[in-house]
Amino acid sequence: MTPGPPPRGRPGVGRSRDRHLRHERRVLLLALLAGAAGVLTTLLLLWTGDYSAKVRWTLGALLIATWLGFASAVRERVIRPLQIVSNLLAALREGDFSIRARGARSDDPLGEVMLEVNVLAETLRQQRLGALEATVLLRKVMEEIDIAVFAFDGDARLRLVNRAGERLLLQPSERLLGSGASVLGLEACLRADAAPILDLAFPGRPGRWEVRRGTFRQGGLSHQLADRHAAEPGLRQARQAPRHGSRAEQLAGADQIDRRQPRTAHRPNAKAGRLGG
Question: Are 35 and 75 in contact (CB under 8 A)?
Answer without folding.
Answer: no
